[in-house]
């Protein structure tokens, strides 16, 4: 499967979109991962929620998601801000050429920190990490901060996922730490770990880019950069199936 990871500057979406469209078509991508809530500039930098800003971000995502068929690929994953049942959520989606958008997983672990006042901006969802099956492909979603809760990576591995997806919005000075988390999650799950991140600057916040693909043993196969914001690799999914039977995945951690 040819998988593409990205970094996007949401303040330059029209030109970034055209460049991404050309890359996906040229690479023959089957699968595309987009950053967390990437179709609006990162808005959780303000400590207090602004309803007009939130609703504008929701509308922007709805408009851009309608354009996913412009990308010459079979599958697209990402997240979007959503108003659901009187609450606000950050929700992961899968788009396929056959079925369009399906909403999969609401973000449950929310930071509240400088530049990332997410718990003030939207609601925390119930803990619910279920693998998503797409034909013969099994996928686990961990949105940004969720990757640090490794018990879910372990559970995803037990369920047999091939890919662990980590769409995120993280600052440049933490890139090494986040890559370390991605490598560890790949090992724990015995799955390829893919991440896509915001890039550029919002106010005083420099977003880090640096998406990645790690193999099931945590080896970094590819990263994005300002020079290469989109990277496509051909992944052998059988490696993720074999990894489940090797150390440390096979170790019994049931109560004694």
Assign the structural class, choosing from mainly alpha, mainly beta, alpha/beta, alpha+beta, or little secondary structure. Answer: alpha/beta
User: How helical, in percent, are the residues?
Assistant: 25-40%
Pick out the low-confidence regions. none
The tally of beta strands, per DSSP, is 13
Largest sheet: 13 strands, mixed
- Strand % is 25-35%
Order of helices and strands: EHEHEEEHEEHEHEEEEEH
Tally of helical segments: 6
What does the radius of gyration come to? 17 Å
Mean pLDDT: 97
First and last CA, distance = 40 Å
Shape: globular
Mind explaining what this structure looks like?
The protein has helices at residues 13-27, 51-65, 118-121, 150-159, 175-189, 238-243, and strands at 2-8, 31-33, 75-84, 87-96, 100-106, 132-134, 137-141, 163-168, 192-202, 205-208, 212-214, 220-223, 230-234. The chain is of the alpha/beta class and 256 residues long. A hairpin with a 2-residue loop joins strand 6 (132-134) and strand 7 (137-141).
């Amino acid at each position: 499967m040819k998988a593409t990871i990205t970094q996007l500057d949401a303040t330059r979406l029209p030109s970034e979109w055209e460049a991404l469209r050309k890359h996906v078509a040229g690479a023959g991508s089957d699968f595309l991962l987009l950053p967390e809530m990437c179709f609006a500039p990162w808005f959780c930098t303000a400590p207090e929620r602004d309803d007009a800003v939130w609703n504008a971000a929701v509308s922007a995502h709805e408009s851009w998601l309608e354009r996913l068929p412009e990308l010459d690929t079979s599958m697209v994953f990402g997240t979007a801000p959503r108003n659901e049942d009187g609450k606000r959520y950050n929700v992961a989606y899968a788009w396929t050429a056959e079925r369009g958008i399906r909403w999969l997983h609401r973000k449950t672990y929310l930071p509240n920190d400088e530049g990332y006042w997410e718990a003030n901006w939207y609601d925390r969802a119930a803990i619910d990490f279920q693998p998503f099956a797409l034909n013969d492909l099994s996928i686990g979603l961990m949105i940004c901060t969720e990757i640090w809760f490794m018990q879910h990576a372990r559970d995803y591995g037990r369920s047999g996922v091939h890919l662990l997806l980590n769409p995120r919005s993280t600052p440049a000075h933490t890139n090494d730490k986040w890559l370390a988390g991605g490598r560890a999650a790949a090992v724990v799950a015995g799955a390829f770990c893919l991440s896509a991140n915001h890039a550029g600057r919002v106010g005083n916040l420099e977003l880090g880019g640096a998406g990645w693909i790690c193999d099931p043993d945590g080896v970094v196969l590819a990263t994005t950069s300002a020079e290469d914001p989109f990277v496509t690799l051909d992944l052998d999914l059988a490696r993720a199936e074999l990894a489940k039977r090797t150390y440390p995945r096979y170790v019994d951690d049931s109560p004694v």
